[in-house]
UniProtKB/TrEMBL annotation, chains A, B:
This is Proline--tRNA ligase. Its main location: cytoplasm. Keywords: Aminoacyl-tRNA synthetase, ATP-binding, Cytoplasm, Ligase, Nucleotide-binding, Protein biosynthesis. Residues 49-339 form the Aminoacyl-transfer RNA synthetases class-II family profile domain.
Length: 434, 434
């Protein structure tokens, strides 16, 4: 992409309500902008990142044997009456009325619709297991939408639902999804932990959360330093006030607090702050029983499906990458999430030699399908450099004064190191980096 | 995909309200199911087709220099008050209230939001032109939702908006988009016509529609048999009653009607029935003036953007392909839209030789990234054949009794021809077909 032709409205202005780095830098870097309370638009750079994350989620789920579907976003209230959640979901579930005064909701989750879809269409144990998922818009009417993409009202979520003939098979799928989720978050380049969790309004027995570690995380988790044990503090402290008080504390404050429990492996436990980006639940027959969704077992007897459900906050992940990867100058995208891997910056676009090299390199990279941005704007070097740091391209190739000595610089956004490379070696150097 | 593990709930039952072939066959073939009036779920096969169409639309637009964004689906009513369309859009625009009694709408289109996005972010003629698009959910509260995906309430639409410093440049982009749309519909394998059209509620001066020719089309168009002239009859007949009367007529009835106009090229004009799948508008400054969205021209003078807008009915295209391509047995997908190109059908799965060849061929095709379905179900041959016709795979490889003579059959869904191929040649034969 030529920067002079791109729509990337970067700005110095910090939105009034933006307290978190991801909120500030995603708006300032021209990735998103606010349409209304808890409502965000994705601009070209933000849309690219969102689609990269969506693609990784889809690839790993498809490889694990899941089937993608897409349910309607507006769903009839009747679905929710039948499961008993019309009331239980409270005000977060936004009710709407169409022109004929029929009642609908903006889907906050889709257990009911998915059970209705499978009911009477999957009738035998022979057709099980089945794991259906969608990556689709959700709406939850948060009382206080805040933190940019982290607690918006409209968001993109991957929600998956599996159907089984036995509890054992459901648990097998639950474990498979845990492994699949780990692959997804690993590919995204995130430092994360899997922890024991409460099931909340979704219901069911066992549940696990996936937390991206970040000082700004809303949740407090306890993790073992020696094994892979981890738990949301909600599952450890019975007292709600104690949980709230811990969640109010900053990461630094938590480090001074002793933990009386001992991990069963004998390792030290410590507090971490986390952003919940995934949640998997063993549902059992809660929804299939309520909605009378049965299959015939080996003896021809009708039985309700054993179910599990699996969620990933896809648009929330865009912000989570930045909460974990940023500095005071802006975003630091991981390789798999960066909107463009290489930024080619011509220091002085009036210098024909600089521009010629820039153009050559840009076209060569495009030819190799390398995602390259070509900053060909007539702006000062310092301005363009700040802009590149704010956006957070992993690597910037600086074509400037050193070109007289046959050299260009390669700037690494993460390490902030700048190294000189001979112009003849730059293409090879880039291909090795990426 | 192994058919025994896929969720493709085909059925003989025709929905009560399904009068059109696409509605009947998409439901019967397990592509979609109805969630509520004008609300549809896409099941795995339907989702694959939808994504194939979305991908082609995106590829062609990106190649034409457009930038993809994603605006929030729920938008504040204030946007629509400012443009004056809060009233003009009527009851099709569904109004909703959040928990704080603030008013929002489910986006039926996004001119206002897009102008607000560009306003104050693109400030100079140097940053123009700009063409932003999204492929996103829309909602229109139709009084009588019907015809399955053709006139639903919630649907997937590509809506693009371009911004220019002059009328000339806007018209250049309008022409470029006409060419781009032609490329898209051609790649999809559709027989379509571009026609002069009314601008309706969107407003503006010039507009063109893209119609997929199909006897069941809701619109009546006039096309020249000798040149590329075409027009929606709305632009030709002043009398609304006459237009309605013509639209009521079937394709056959229209063929007996004489057309008094003569094409300027001297060619014969004839009536056709069409499904509107695209619409492009020259907007001028209607929205930019109303929303005070200006740029500085060469003399530093503020001027409202010249705009154009471009729509494609993405989910409607799924149905349009079938309205144009079907027979009494079911769907006939075009190569670019088929959910799977090759269907491998083992006639008797208890016959080890048949199954071995089926498995071998299936895995070999998967290895070459050929989209293959492997019908390994324990069902009668006739049942599986009917199922394949209903779904509409372009080619079915039948591994049956003829295997004893070293032959398999390849069935072409469109021509209904079945030819015998030596088992040793089948892989090569398939690769030549696709």
């Amino acid at each position: 992409m030529r920067r002079s032709r791109a729509f990337i409205p970067t700005t110095k202005e910090v939105p009034n309500d933006a307290t978190l780095p991801s909120h500030q830098f995603l708006v300032r870097g021209g990735f998103i902008n606010q349409q209304g309370a808890g409502l965000y638009n994705f601009l070209p750079l933000g849309k690219i990142v969102l689609e990269k994350i969506r693609t990784i989620v889809k690839e790993e789920l498809d490889m694990a044997g899941c089937n993608e579907v897409q349910l309607s976003f507006v769903t009839p209230i009747g679905l929710w009456d039948r499961s008993g959640r019309a009331d239980a979901m409270g005000k977060e579930m936004l009710r709407i009325q169409d022109r004929h005064q029929n009642d609908f909701v903006l889907s906050p989750t889709n257990e009911e619709a998915m059970v209705e879809l499978v009911k009477n269409r999957v009738t035998s144990y022979k057709d099980l297991p089945l794991n259906l998922y969608q990556i689709n818009t959700k709406f939850r009417d948060e009382a206080r939408p805040r933190y940019g993409l982290l607690r918006g009202r409209e968001f993109l979520m991957k929600d998956g639902y599996s159907f089984h003939a036995s509890t054992e098979d459901m648990i097998r799928e639950f474990d498979l999804m845990e492994e699949t989720y780990k692959k997804i978050f690993t590919r995204l380049g995130l430092d994360f932990r899997v922890v024991q969790a409460d099931s909340g309004a979704i219901g069911g027995e066992g549940s696990k959360e996936f937390h991206v570690l970040a000082d700004s995380g809303e949740d407090t988790i306890i993790v073992c330093e020696s094994c892979d044990y981890g738990a949301n503090i909600e599952t450890i402290f019975d007292n709600e006030e104690e949980v709230d008080a811990l969640n109010e504390k900053t990461y630094e404050e938590l480090q001074t607090k002793e933990i009386s429990e001992k991990c069963s492996c004998g390792g030290n436990l410590s507090f971490k702050k986390g952003i919940e980006v995934g949640h998997i639940f063993q549902l059992g027959t809660k929804y299939s029983s309520a909605l009378e969704a049965n299959f015939s077992d080996e003896n021809g007897k009708p039985r309700p499906f054993e179910m599990a459900t699996f969620g990933i906050g896809v648009s929330r992940l865009v912000a989570s990458v930045i909460e974990q990867n940023h500095d005071e100058n802006g975003c630091i995208w991981t390789k798999e999430t960066a909107p463009y891997t290489i930024n080619i910056m011509v220091s002085n676009i009036k210098d024909e030699t600089q521009m010629t090299l820039g153009e050559e390199l840009y076209l060569k990279l495009l030819g190799e399908n390398v995602e390259a941005m070509f900053d060909d704007r007539k702006e000062r070097f310092g301005f363009k450099m700040k802009d590149a740091e704010l956006i957070g391209f992993p690597y910037t190739v600086i074509i400037g004064k050193e070109l007289d000595n046959g050299l260009v610089q390669v700037y690494d956004r993460k390490t902030q190191e700048k190294i000189s490379v001979k112009t003849g070696d730059i293409y090879k150097h880039i291909m090795e980096l990426i």
